[in-house]
Design brief:
Blueprint: E1 35-50, E2 59-79, E3 82-99, E4 102-107, E5 114-120, E6 123-127, E7 133-134, H1 135-142, E8 164-166, H2 169-176, E9 178-193, E10 200-213, E11 216-229, E12 234-246, E13 255-267, H3 275-278, E14 292-295, E15 299-303, E16 307-312, E17 316-321, E18 326-332, H4 340-353, E19 357-361, E20 365-368, E21 373-383, E22 386-397, E23 400-408, H5 413-426, E24 428-429
Parallel strand pairs: 7-14
Antiparallel strand pairs: 1-2, 1-13, 2-3, 3-4, 3-5, 5-6, 8-9, 9-10, 10-11, 11-12, 12-13, 14-15, 15-24, 16-17, 17-18, 18-23, 19-21, 20-21, 21-22, 22-23
């Protein structure tokens, strides 16, 4: 199960007594407008070994956690016959974890409970048409199980009790959260029809898989089962128990985390996901609805997803862009905020000290005054033969001030400047 936030993927257990020799066909068809309700629970416990470094000895940390998720989902579109885009109304998405003595909690905010999920290369890429998401909220969705991918556990031909088949690669990656599978397989076995409820067929699965995930190499040991509803033709219940072992570069275990995962599903349509209810929202990704939200007691702003917050320590926030540009925000109480003229003099003096050749100094200009002041200037410079584009913004609000210092890859300067200006305009400060 995809639980990278917990650093574990999970397995399944059950107690139903099944029997039957009849041949059955187990197929769930995901079509546009197909709706269903999902509820799942994850619990984990174990240890994680932090390797020694030159500044610290190796240490073993206890880890425990739980998550609870409930939502309705509607399939919007397919790609190559598989669900590629869904819209989801979340009732609950909570996460808690303890690593050593550090407690961590995360949950989806109610005001962004409507999510659009795009499936790209076995990864869920969410956005909310209701507003920007926090990075932690995106991680919550990304590590949740994308239930359409569980169809990869189903056989491609009719089966009878005792028949076995391999799960497909999509399902394995979904259950383990591995980006690359190096070895191993997940074997499914048809265990028959439930004696008590003939509407249910049961399939067991187990396997050991090694591969590489976001946190490096790992081994996943999985065992569980799922029920398939023969009347409505859908996977209705999954129970999984698993062991996740992070591996060193030498392939040795760096701890062991055990977990359980239980999921229930049923077809269900709700008015909130009807065409009429969704008509007010833009369900197609664009530069506005895919913005990320940064939110701390000192500062709040939005930024594009190809930027990443590299470090934030309260008064300074450092962002890097995937093509090489970077941005430093420095926050000050309004009484200590330098004027734009003073800031420009400091910048030019520092660049000169660094032996930069100043090819062009862009004039200081006032971008706007309402609801607060933003001033801007830029510098085109060279360090030897290496060109560099610098960009600066000074923001003054009643709740504090901020200076934004950007350095851009020259070929990307115009695009990056527009993005940073948008960050500056979205800033809400509370610096004391």
């Amino acid at each position: 199960m995809r639980i990278a936030l917990f650093a574990v993927s999970l397995i399944v257990v059950g107690t139903s007594v099944l029997s039957a020799q009849e041949t059955v066909r187990l197929i769930e068809v995901f079509r546009p407008d197909y709706q269903y309700r999902v509820s799942c629970r994850v619990d984990i416990a174990g240890t994680l070994t932090v390797p020694a470094s030159k500044n610290a000895a190796s240490q073993t940390l206890k880890i425990s956690g739980a998550s609870s998720i409930k939502y309705h989902e509607r399939v919007l579109s397919l790609a190559q016959g598989k669900a590629a885009k869904t819209v989801r109304l979340v009732q609950k998405m909570d996460f808690s974890r303890k690593v050593g003595e550090q407690d961590q909690e995360n949950k989806l905010r109610p005001d962004v409970s409507l999510l659009v999920i795009q499936r790209l290369d076995n990864v869920e890429v969410p956005f909310s048409p209701q507003g920007p998401l926090l990075l932690g909220e995106i991680e919550l969705v990304r590590t949740d199980v994308f239930t359409p991918a569980l169809a990869g556990l189903l056989p491609r031909a009719p089966v009878k009790t005792g028949d076995e088949w391999p799960a497909d690669l999509d399902a394995i990656k979904e259950l383990t959260d591995l980006e690359k599978v190096a070895k191993g397989a997940l074997t499914c076995r048809f265990e028959g029809i439930d004696r008590v409820n003939a509407q249910l067929a049961r399939v067991g699965f187990r396997g050991v898989i090694n591969g590489v995930g976001e946190d490096g190499p790992a081994q996943h040991e999985l065992e569980g089962f799922f029920n398939f509803d023969l009347k409505s033709n859908h996977i209705s219940y999954v129970s999984l128990q698993g062991v996740h072992r992070p591996l060193s570069a030498a392939g040795l275990p760096q701890g062991e985390i055990k977990g359980t995962f239980v999921l229930t599903r049923e077809p269900a349509e709700i008015a909130e996901l009807s065409d009429a209810a969704l008509a007010r929202w833009n369900l197609n990704a664009n530069d506005d609805n895919t913005q990320l939200l940064f939110d701390t007691p000192e500062a709040r702003f939005v930024y594009p997803r190809h930027w990443r917050v590299d470090e934030a320590n309260g008064r300074q926030i450092h962002l890097v862009e995937k093509q090489g540009s970077d941005l430093l925000m420095t926050l000050d109480p309004i009484a200590k905020q330098p004027s734009a003229v003073t800031f420009q003099k400091e910048v030019l003096s520092k660049l000169t000290e660094q032996k930069a050749v100043l090819d062009r100094v862009h004039q200081l200009r006032l971008l706007h005054t309402n609801p607060f002041h933003i001033e801007h200037f830029g510098v085109d410079a060279r360090f030897g033969t290496q060109p560099a584009v610098f960009d600066y913004f000074v923001v003054r609000q009643n709740g504090g001030g901020a200076t934004l210092s950007g350095r851009y890859v020259p070929a990307q300067a115009d695009a990056r400047r527009g993005e940073v200006e948008r960050m500056a305009r979205s800033l809400v400060l509370n610096v004391k």
